[in-house]
Amino acid sequence: MNLFFCGGIAKSGTTLLQRILNLHNDISCQFEDDLNYLLQEFIRIHRGYNLRIKQTGDRIGLKEVKPVSSKVYDNALFKIINDIAEERKLDKKFVGISDNNFLLENFNILNDNFTNSKSIIIFRNPIDRAISLWNHNHRLYKKENEYGHIKVLEIDGKLDLDKFVIHKSNLWNSRVKKIFEKKNKNSLFITYELLCTKKSDVIKKVFNFIGCKYDNPTINSIVENTSLKDFKAKSSYPEFYDKGSLNFGEDFLNSETIKKSIELSKESLDLLNIKIPDKFE
After folding, report:
1. Bridge partner residues of 96 (DSSP)
2. pLDDT tens digits for 111-126?
Protein backbone atom coordinates (compact mmCIF):
# COMPACT_ATOMS: atom_id res chain seq x y z
CA MET A 1 0.00 0.00 0.00
CA ASN A 2 1.28 3.46 -0.95
CA LEU A 3 0.49 5.27 2.28
CA PHE A 4 1.07 8.90 3.18
CA PHE A 5 0.08 11.17 6.05
CA CYS A 6 -0.78 14.85 5.75
CA GLY A 7 -1.76 17.66 8.09
CA GLY A 8 -0.41 20.51 10.16
CA ILE A 9 -1.18 22.92 12.96
CA ALA A 10 -4.94 23.57 13.01
CA LYS A 11 -6.15 26.43 10.75
CA SER A 12 -3.06 26.24 8.55
CA GLY A 13 -4.72 24.99 5.36
CA THR A 14 -4.97 21.32 6.36
CA THR A 15 -8.46 20.96 4.88
CA LEU A 16 -7.35 22.53 1.61
CA LEU A 17 -4.41 20.12 1.42
CA GLN A 18 -6.63 17.11 2.14
CA ARG A 19 -9.17 18.15 -0.51
CA ILE A 20 -6.47 18.72 -3.13
CA LEU A 21 -5.02 15.27 -2.58
CA ASN A 22 -8.41 13.56 -2.66
CA LEU A 23 -9.28 15.11 -6.01
CA HIS A 24 -6.58 13.13 -7.83
CA ASN A 25 -8.08 10.02 -9.44
CA ASP A 26 -5.32 7.80 -8.05
CA ILE A 27 -5.51 9.10 -4.46
CA SER A 28 -7.94 8.41 -1.64
CA CYS A 29 -7.66 10.98 1.15
CA GLN A 30 -11.31 11.32 2.09
CA PHE A 31 -11.48 12.63 5.63
CA GLU A 32 -9.63 14.39 8.43
CA ASP A 33 -8.86 12.00 11.27
CA ASP A 34 -8.02 12.45 14.95
CA LEU A 35 -5.32 9.91 15.73
CA ASN A 36 -4.52 11.71 18.97
CA TYR A 37 -7.96 10.71 20.22
CA LEU A 38 -7.12 7.07 19.49
CA LEU A 39 -3.78 7.45 21.25
CA GLN A 40 -5.36 8.92 24.40
CA GLU A 41 -7.95 6.14 24.48
CA PHE A 42 -5.22 3.50 24.17
CA ILE A 43 -3.29 5.12 27.03
CA ARG A 44 -6.45 5.14 29.16
CA ILE A 45 -7.21 1.49 28.37
CA HIS A 46 -3.59 0.48 28.96
CA ARG A 47 -3.51 2.04 32.42
CA GLY A 48 -6.94 0.71 33.31
CA TYR A 49 -6.17 -2.81 32.18
CA ASN A 50 -2.91 -2.96 34.14
CA LEU A 51 -4.78 -1.79 37.24
CA ARG A 52 -7.38 -4.51 36.69
CA ILE A 53 -4.90 -7.36 36.37
CA LYS A 54 -2.94 -6.12 39.40
CA GLN A 55 -6.16 -5.97 41.41
CA THR A 56 -7.03 -9.51 40.36
CA GLY A 57 -3.53 -10.69 41.27
CA ASP A 58 -3.78 -9.03 44.69
CA ARG A 59 -7.08 -10.78 45.35
CA ILE A 60 -5.60 -14.22 44.79
CA GLY A 61 -2.37 -13.46 46.65
CA LEU A 62 0.14 -13.13 43.81
CA LYS A 63 3.33 -11.36 44.89
CA GLU A 64 3.90 -9.85 41.47
CA VAL A 65 1.77 -9.23 38.39
CA LYS A 66 3.73 -8.22 35.31
CA PRO A 67 1.96 -5.31 33.59
CA VAL A 68 1.22 -5.37 29.89
CA SER A 69 3.90 -3.30 28.16
CA SER A 70 3.11 -0.17 26.19
CA LYS A 71 4.60 -1.86 23.12
CA VAL A 72 1.55 -4.13 22.92
CA TYR A 73 -0.71 -1.09 22.73
CA ASP A 74 1.59 0.76 20.34
CA ASN A 75 1.43 -2.19 17.97
CA ALA A 76 -2.34 -2.31 18.28
CA LEU A 77 -2.60 1.43 17.53
CA PHE A 78 -0.45 1.07 14.42
CA LYS A 79 -2.58 -1.90 13.36
CA ILE A 80 -5.74 0.20 13.61
CA ILE A 81 -4.14 3.03 11.63
CA ASN A 82 -3.15 0.53 8.96
CA ASP A 83 -6.67 -0.94 8.89
CA ILE A 84 -8.19 2.55 8.57
CA ALA A 85 -5.94 3.16 5.57
CA GLU A 86 -6.85 -0.21 4.02
CA GLU A 87 -10.55 0.51 4.46
CA ARG A 88 -10.18 3.93 2.84
CA LYS A 89 -8.02 2.74 -0.04
CA LEU A 90 -10.86 1.48 -2.25
CA ASP A 91 -9.31 0.90 -5.69
CA LYS A 92 -6.85 3.79 -5.56
CA LYS A 93 -3.06 3.52 -5.88
CA PHE A 94 -2.37 5.89 -3.00
CA VAL A 95 -4.13 6.37 0.31
CA GLY A 96 -3.66 9.26 2.69
CA ILE A 97 -4.56 9.81 6.33
CA SER A 98 -5.07 13.47 7.20
CA ASP A 99 -4.31 14.32 10.82
CA ASN A 100 -2.93 17.19 12.87
CA ASN A 101 -1.64 16.89 16.44
CA PHE A 102 -0.62 13.21 16.44
CA LEU A 103 1.09 13.60 13.06
CA LEU A 104 3.06 16.66 14.12
CA GLU A 105 4.46 14.88 17.16
CA ASN A 106 5.02 11.49 15.55
CA PHE A 107 5.50 11.74 11.79
CA ASN A 108 8.98 10.24 11.96
CA ILE A 109 7.67 7.37 14.13
CA LEU A 110 4.85 6.79 11.63
CA ASN A 111 7.34 6.73 8.78
CA ASP A 112 9.43 4.17 10.68
CA ASN A 113 6.44 1.90 11.34
CA PHE A 114 4.83 2.14 7.91
CA THR A 115 7.39 1.11 5.32
CA ASN A 116 7.88 3.66 2.53
CA SER A 117 5.19 5.97 3.92
CA LYS A 118 5.63 9.73 3.64
CA SER A 119 4.36 12.80 5.50
CA ILE A 120 3.31 16.16 4.11
CA ILE A 121 3.01 18.98 6.65
CA ILE A 122 1.56 22.40 5.91
CA PHE A 123 2.33 25.61 7.81
CA ARG A 124 0.78 29.09 7.81
CA ASN A 125 2.05 32.35 9.25
CA PRO A 126 1.09 32.46 12.95
CA ILE A 127 -0.85 35.73 12.84
CA ASP A 128 -3.40 34.81 10.17
CA ARG A 129 -3.53 31.32 11.61
CA ALA A 130 -4.35 32.65 15.11
CA ILE A 131 -7.05 34.99 13.76
CA SER A 132 -8.58 32.12 11.80
CA LEU A 133 -8.60 30.01 14.96
CA TRP A 134 -10.19 32.86 16.92
CA ASN A 135 -12.97 33.26 14.34
CA HIS A 136 -13.46 29.52 13.99
CA ASN A 137 -13.96 28.98 17.72
CA HIS A 138 -16.44 31.84 17.91
CA ARG A 139 -18.42 30.26 15.08
CA LEU A 140 -18.37 26.90 16.85
CA TYR A 141 -19.62 28.53 20.05
CA LYS A 142 -22.47 30.14 18.15
CA LYS A 143 -23.33 26.85 16.43
CA GLU A 144 -22.91 24.42 19.34
CA ASN A 145 -23.50 26.71 22.35
CA GLU A 146 -20.49 25.16 24.12
CA TYR A 147 -18.47 27.73 26.08
CA GLY A 148 -15.38 25.52 25.97
CA HIS A 149 -14.81 26.82 22.43
CA ILE A 150 -14.46 30.33 23.85
CA LYS A 151 -12.65 29.35 27.04
CA VAL A 152 -9.56 28.17 25.15
CA LEU A 153 -9.25 31.63 23.58
CA GLU A 154 -8.94 33.41 26.90
CA ILE A 155 -5.63 34.89 28.03
CA ASP A 156 -5.46 35.48 31.78
CA GLY A 157 -9.18 34.83 31.97
CA LYS A 158 -10.11 37.47 29.38
CA LEU A 159 -10.90 37.58 25.67
CA ASP A 160 -8.41 39.87 23.96
CA LEU A 161 -7.60 39.23 20.29
CA ASP A 162 -4.30 41.14 20.35
CA LYS A 163 -3.00 39.26 23.40
CA PHE A 164 -4.26 35.98 21.94
CA VAL A 165 -2.39 36.49 18.66
CA ILE A 166 0.84 37.47 20.42
CA HIS A 167 0.57 34.44 22.72
CA LYS A 168 -0.14 32.06 19.84
CA SER A 169 2.67 33.50 17.73
CA ASN A 170 5.16 32.78 20.48
CA LEU A 171 3.88 29.20 20.91
CA TRP A 172 3.86 28.71 17.13
CA ASN A 173 7.51 29.68 16.89
CA SER A 174 8.53 27.10 19.49
CA ARG A 175 6.40 24.39 17.95
CA VAL A 176 7.63 24.91 14.41
CA LYS A 177 11.26 24.74 15.54
CA LYS A 178 10.57 21.43 17.32
CA ILE A 179 8.85 20.03 14.22
CA PHE A 180 11.83 21.00 12.08
CA GLU A 181 14.12 19.04 14.39
CA LYS A 182 12.23 15.88 13.38
CA LYS A 183 12.26 16.54 9.63
CA ASN A 184 13.60 13.65 7.56
CA LYS A 185 13.80 12.49 3.95
CA ASN A 186 10.28 11.07 4.14
CA SER A 187 8.71 14.39 5.14
CA LEU A 188 7.79 17.35 2.97
CA PHE A 189 7.09 20.79 4.45
CA ILE A 190 4.95 23.26 2.49
CA THR A 191 3.32 26.58 3.35
CA TYR A 192 -0.25 27.76 2.95
CA GLU A 193 1.13 31.00 1.56
CA LEU A 194 2.75 29.27 -1.43
CA LEU A 195 -0.14 26.85 -1.85
CA CYS A 196 -2.44 29.85 -2.32
CA THR A 197 -0.17 32.01 -4.47
CA LYS A 198 1.54 29.28 -6.53
CA LYS A 199 -1.00 26.50 -6.26
CA SER A 200 -0.07 24.57 -9.42
CA ASP A 201 3.63 24.48 -8.55
CA VAL A 202 3.03 23.31 -4.98
CA ILE A 203 0.50 20.66 -6.04
CA LYS A 204 3.01 19.25 -8.53
CA LYS A 205 5.68 19.23 -5.81
CA VAL A 206 3.38 17.29 -3.48
CA PHE A 207 2.45 14.74 -6.15
CA ASN A 208 6.11 14.27 -7.12
CA PHE A 209 6.97 13.71 -3.47
CA ILE A 210 4.48 10.88 -2.99
CA GLY A 211 5.24 9.44 -6.43
CA CYS A 212 1.85 10.10 -7.98
CA LYS A 213 1.66 10.76 -11.73
CA TYR A 214 -0.26 13.71 -13.13
CA ASP A 215 -0.80 15.74 -16.28
CA ASN A 216 -1.69 19.38 -16.89
CA PRO A 217 -5.46 18.77 -17.24
CA THR A 218 -5.41 17.03 -13.83
CA ILE A 219 -3.59 19.92 -12.19
CA ASN A 220 -5.84 22.51 -13.83
CA SER A 221 -8.97 20.67 -12.72
CA ILE A 222 -7.75 20.45 -9.12
CA VAL A 223 -6.86 24.15 -9.08
CA GLU A 224 -10.31 25.08 -10.41
CA ASN A 225 -12.14 22.91 -7.89
CA THR A 226 -10.29 23.98 -4.74
CA SER A 227 -11.14 27.66 -4.53
CA LEU A 228 -12.63 29.06 -1.32
CA LYS A 229 -15.74 29.98 -3.28
CA ASP A 230 -16.10 26.40 -4.51
CA PHE A 231 -15.68 24.94 -1.00
CA LYS A 232 -18.36 27.25 0.39
CA ALA A 233 -20.78 26.45 -2.41
CA LYS A 234 -20.48 22.70 -1.89
CA SER A 235 -20.48 22.67 1.92
CA SER A 236 -23.44 22.14 4.26
CA TYR A 237 -21.59 24.47 6.67
CA PRO A 238 -20.05 27.22 4.48
CA GLU A 239 -19.24 29.33 7.54
CA PHE A 240 -16.39 26.90 8.29
CA TYR A 241 -14.39 28.37 5.43
CA ASP A 242 -12.81 31.62 6.51
CA LYS A 243 -11.32 34.27 4.22
CA GLY A 244 -7.98 32.48 3.90
CA SER A 245 -6.13 35.71 4.63
CA LEU A 246 -2.39 36.05 4.03
CA ASN A 247 -1.84 39.65 5.08
CA PHE A 248 -0.50 39.05 8.60
CA GLY A 249 -3.67 40.31 10.24
CA GLU A 250 -3.58 43.79 8.72
CA ASP A 251 -7.39 43.96 8.57
CA PHE A 252 -7.84 42.89 12.20
CA LEU A 253 -4.92 44.08 14.31
CA ASN A 254 -2.97 47.23 15.02
CA SER A 255 0.57 47.44 13.64
CA GLU A 256 2.11 47.20 17.11
CA THR A 257 0.52 43.79 17.71
CA ILE A 258 1.56 42.58 14.27
CA LYS A 259 5.17 43.69 14.72
CA LYS A 260 5.37 42.09 18.17
CA SER A 261 3.96 38.81 16.83
CA ILE A 262 6.42 38.82 13.93
CA GLU A 263 9.28 39.49 16.32
CA LEU A 264 8.29 36.50 18.45
CA SER A 265 7.93 34.17 15.46
CA LYS A 266 10.75 35.44 13.23
CA GLU A 267 12.97 32.35 13.63
CA SER A 268 10.33 29.99 12.34
CA LEU A 269 9.11 32.36 9.64
CA ASP A 270 12.66 32.31 8.34
CA LEU A 271 12.84 28.52 8.57
CA LEU A 272 9.73 28.28 6.41
CA ASN A 273 10.76 31.08 4.06
CA ILE A 274 7.45 32.86 4.69
CA LYS A 275 7.88 36.41 3.41
CA ILE A 276 7.05 39.16 5.87
CA PRO A 277 5.26 42.17 4.31
CA ASP A 278 7.73 45.03 3.79
CA LYS A 279 5.72 47.42 5.95
CA PHE A 280 6.25 45.16 8.97
CA GLU A 281 9.93 44.43 8.45
Report:
1. 4
2. 889 989 999 999 999 9
Homologous superfamily of the 2-280 domain (CATH): P-loop containing nucleotide triphosphate hydrolases (3.40.50.300)
Q: For residue 215, what pLDDT is reported?
A: 97
Cα separation values, 53 from 47, 57, 62, 257, Å: 10, 6, 11, 55
**What is the C-alpha to C-alpha distance for residues 232 and 236, in angstroms, rounded to an integer?**
8
Question: pLDDT value at position 241?
Answer: 67
Are 102 and 86 a contacting pair, CB within 8 Å? no
Distance (Å) of CA 253 to CA 83, 88, 262: 45, 42, 13
Residues 6+ apart with CB under 8 A from 210: 2, 4, 94, 118, 120
Domain spans in the chain, listed from the N-terminal domain onward: 2-280
Segment 3-43, tens digit of pLDDT: 999 999 999 999 999 999 999 999 999 999 999 999 999 99
